[in-house]
Structures are given as structure tokens and as C-alpha cells.
Specification:
The structure is a single chain. By secondary structure, the chain is α+β, with helices and mostly antiparallel strands. The protein has 10 helices and 8 strands. Helices cover about 45% and strands about 25% of the residues. Strands 3-1-2-8 form a 4-stranded antiparallel sheet. Strands 5-6-4-7 form a 4-stranded antiparallel sheet, with helices on both faces. The protein starts with a helix and ends with a helix.
Length: about 250
């Protein structure tokens, strides 16, 4: 189980109540803006924008907010001011951590991220220091409900271009090359398979195990990083044990 995958599950289980809705909308709006700026405002020909719109809808973002974010980017206002930055560093126990940021103030973002690493007993590193430990992959998450045949879903996913599948905690995780993510998602939805989420993600090539104290410290660091307005996604190579997850959620 990749660190990111387990961290994503932990976040889902904790629920959206842990995050202020306004903050969620801010992050979604930035993703919409940068996607529209990079690939144009027509979602039909812009997979990244289509994915951003899907995530916005899943989080109940009002349609007018979605349209406003796309329009601003098209007018070269909001989207033009945003920078995409990836910070890399080491958390407690030497855990590799990658932080994807969308910000209109590089200095602020760097200072906030560095401060959290330092307070957690880790350190922010140079570009490339941990990136080699991760692969960029597409991830489609399917909720295993009702009479859904997980073996059949897995076969259909692989036939449509998926590279691997894993079952964990009531979900089927389908891994793809990033270029095949949209194709696999569309095929599963055509078969009325309940796709809970899909995204381009960074997956650890090899997971690491930490003792309980270090693992809990890493989880707290990930949580605090994701609370920053500028941070879009956080990844780690830590494999969190069920006992650690239960203690953290408790």
C-alpha cells in the first residue's frame, strides 16, 4: 500500500468536517484557474480542467464559483498570478514528503511549508531530493458496494489500459499511466461502476515503516501541511499500520 494511497484513505475516513468549506473552495478554485490557464476554458478538450470540475462538484462547490474561477483564468487575472511549486523534504524518521503548492506568493508558501517541517522535527530539502522515490501515476478509486464484482471490474480496468489494481478497506484502487487515466475512468463509468475519485498522483516506489511515535508525527505533519491554503496535495512514502491509523483517528 503506497503512502499516498493510505493517507488518502485516512483523509476520507476523517471526513470533510475536518476542513473549513471556504478553504476547500479556495483550493478547488485555484486548481480550476490553473487548469483553465494551462489548457484552455473548454473542459471537453482539457482533461485537467475536466478533473478539476469533477472534484469541485463532488465537494458541492456552487456552479457560479466554478464558472467564475474559469472565467478569471481565461481573462489572465487569477490564473496568471498562480505558480505551481513542488516542495520536497524529510519528515520524522526520515520519511520522504512531497508537497504540491498553488500560490500567488512564493515566499509566503515556502516560509509556511518550511516552518511546519521544522516544527515537526523534519527539514525542507532541495528540489529532487526525494522526487526519485515516487512515480507519477493515475489513480481511480472505486467503492466496492452491493453486488459489484471486483474481479470483473479489475479485468475491465486492465483491458482498458490500467496497469495494476489493489483492494483495500472497501475500495478498489486502479493504477494507470497518467495518459490513460481518462480512458480508464470513462470505461468504468460506462459500465456504471461507482468511481469515488480519480486523480494524477505520486506513488512511492517503495514504502517505509516507522515506529508508532514517528508515524504519528508524520501524520500530524501531513495534516498540518494540507491545512495551508496554498497546499493542494501531500504525498509520503510511509506505510501506516492499522494500529497507527486507529490511534491517529482516535
Amino acid at each position: 500500500m503506497s503512502g499516498h494511497s493510505k493517507w488518502a484513505q485516512i483523509k476520507r475516513q476523517k471526513g470533510a468536517a475536518d476542513h473549513k468549506r471556504g478553504q476547500v473552495f479556495t483550493k478547488l478554485g485555484r486548481e480550476l484557474s490553473i487548469a483553465a490557464r494551462e489548457g484552455g476554458p473548454d473542459s471537453a478538450g482539457n482533461p485537467r480542467l475536466r478533473l478539476a470540475i469533477q472534484h469541485a462538484r463532488e465537494n458541492n462547490m456552487p456552479l457560479e464559483n466554478i464558472e467564475r474561477a474559469i472565467k478569471k483564468a481565461s481573462e489572465r487575472s487569477e490564473g496568471a498570478a498562480l505558480e505551481e511549486i513542488v516542495y520536497e523534504g524529510y519528515g520524522p524518521g526520515g520519511a520522504a514528503v512531497m508537497v504540491e503548492v498553488l500560490t500567488d506568493n512564493r515566499n509566503r508558501a515556502a516560509a509556511e511549508v518550511r516552518n511546519l517541517f521544522t516544527r515537526a522535527g523534519g527539514s525542507l530539502g532541495e528540489s529532487g531530493c526525494v522526487a526519485w522515490l515516487f512515480d507519477q501515476r493515475g489513480l481511480v478509486t472505486v467503492e466496492l458496494k452491493g453486488k459489484l464484482d471486483q474481479d470483473q471490474v479489475a479485468l475491465e480496468a486492465i483491458d482498458s489500459g490500467a496497469e495494476d489494481v489493489e483492494v483495500a478497506d472497501g475500495t478498489l484502487e486502479v493504477y494507470t499511466d497518467p495518459t490513460n487515466l481518462e480512458k480508464v475512468r470513462q470505461r468504468l463509468e460506462q459500465l456504471h461502476v461507482p468511481v469515488a475519485n480519480y486523480e494524477i498522483s505520486r506513488m512511492a516506489k517503495t514504502d517505509v515503516q516507522l515506529d508508532e511515535k514517528e508515524a504519528l508525527s508524520v501524520l500530524r505533519l501531513l495534516d498540518k501541511l494540507e491545512e495551508l491554503d496554498d497546499v493542494q496535495r501531500v504525498y509520503t512514502n510511509v506505510d501506516f499500520s492499522p494500529a497507527v491509523v486507529e490511534k491517529y483517528q482516535g
